[in-house]
Amino acid sequence: MKEIYFRLVYLEPGMFFNFNYKLNIFMTNELNKNLYIEKIPLRKGMKTDTTDYTLVLNISCHSNKFTVTGPTMYRKDQEIDFYLNIPYKKIPTIKEQAVYFLSYVELGLIDILREDAEKYAIHLAISKVKQSVTRLDDNNELLEFIED
User: Fold this and answer.
1) How far is CA 60 from CA 45, 70, 77, 114, in A?
2) Is there a domain that residue 138 lies in?
3) pLDDT tens across the length of the chain (148 residues)
């Protein structure tokens, strides 16, 4: 895979993460530094080798349980998209929101990669990203709060 990206998609009013796009980019870059996924295991409907594709995780918050849906493949853009539907939980600080968010990204990647998840050391990679976020100085611009 080329890279992993997070795309934040909000389907329900008032249910969203308050972190800004800069923190989203920071977490994406940290994840790509710590995790290289060769390819997504083939699933029903997938006819293409995904080695040269970008993995896009579309993130939405809602009031239900955690689910992973997809894939949707875009051959022209060489993207493979999955939706991670994360249960909404009001969390007071940006760092705590990011750690909560990353915990579900980990679960999503494990679900997406299935039996290959262990060989990629997903837990270790996500732990490193969480550490990078929690080490940020509280006055860092990445931790600016977005108002509801």
Assistant:
1) 24, 13, 22, 21
2) yes
3) 789 999 987 778 878 788 889 999 999 999 999 999 988 887 766 667 778 899 999 999 887 899 999 999 898 999 999 999 999 998 989 999 999 999 999 999 999 998 888 889 999 999 999 999 999 998 888 888 776 5
pTM above 0.70, yes or no: yes
- 3-class SS of residue 54: strand
Residue 103 sits in which domain range? Answer: 4-143
CA distances from 4 to 14, 77, 88, 91, 95 (A): 27, 14, 23, 25, 21
Tokens representing residue 115 in the block: 């039996």
The answer to whether residue 91 is domain-embedded is: yes
135 part of a folded domain? yes
Cβ atoms 41, 55 nearer than 8 A: no
Q: Rg for the chain (alpha carbons), in Å? A: 15
Which 3-state string (H, E, C) describes 60-90? EEECCCCEEEEEEEECCCCEEEEEEEEECCC
- In-domain check, residue 35: yes
